[in-house]
Write a structure and sequence with these properties.
This protein is mainly beta. Helix content is 2%, strand content 53%. It has one helix at 3-8; strands at 31-36, 41-46, 51-57, 64-67, 73-78, 83-88, 93-99, 104-109, 116-120, 125-132, 135-143, 148-153, 159-164, 169-174, 179-185, 190-195, 201-206, 211-216, 221-227, 232-238, 241-246, 251-256, 262-267, 272-277, 283-288, 293-298, 303-309, 317-318. It has a five-stranded mixed beta sheet with strand order 7-6-5-4-28, with no helix packed on it. The longest helix has 6 residues, at 3-8.
Length: 322
Amino acid sequence: MSRPRLVAACLVALIATAPAASAAQAASAAQAVVTVQGANAVEIVDLDGGAVVATIPVAGSPAGVALSPDRATAYVTRPDGPGLAVIDLAARKVVGLVPLPGGPLGIAVDPVSGAVYVADWYAARVFVLVPRDGTLALDGEIAVGASPSGLAVTPDGATLLVANREDDSVSIVALATRRETARVKVGHHPFGLTLDATGARAYTANVTGNDVSVIDVAAAREVGRAATGERPYVVALAGGRGFVTDQYGNTVTVFDLATLKTLKTIDVGDHPEGIAATRDGRRLYVANWGDNTLSVIDAGTLAVTGEIKMSDGPRAFGDFLR
């Protein structure tokens, strides 16, 4: 799947809930693991130093990214592989390639079992991969809605949520049985999907609806919407606020999680896609696909405080901070 085709497909994205940090990890993320699709690589960014410190070649137009529960391994989707790359982050090299059919893009990791879930953009299914012999092995698939994109697993590892772009819905899947238990109607063309820290609420960026749907996971229903800029892509959460990348607006919309009212619109780089908050909630990082940068946002002042140069086509949609 080439870059122009991805644009035509509205550039599938996701944000998956990050596993809980271990005691040994710093309060804020020390590194970003960023897919740079045009460069066919994954770049490791020193966030304190504000610079790329390693470039790892990954063929096949790397797109989605998620990290293992111990944050030592990165899993990267390769839609033009098609398949998945397994990266040892300490060694900074690819240690495995897993072939997959269709269009693998969205990805999430079970924070309890370490199982990896990959959305097939071209079919109504999610692949299940399990750790085996130092890599991943395909272990079945789950039927969901049309064109699955964003994925997230609840902190207890019991439930998978899937944004189905062409079905305007979110699938709720019981992972014990690998079956869909509910399908929640949301806004138009949901892409990025984010869970709060407890797994109680999910947020979908509705690309052609210019809003975010809020889902009560236990009740399996939409409970509200927040307005965004043009072509919302991914949602991140920090300090009681939602932060949404607006692809066509070159902005990040900030809204209050309690009232769903817009608080501010922040100008960032060209065509922002992936966004994630540090674990202490003080900063957010935005991958600007159009101008090859990461924007740094102060979550308290809601101001851009820096910019980090990247290689061609940073996307970073997924769980990319460690």
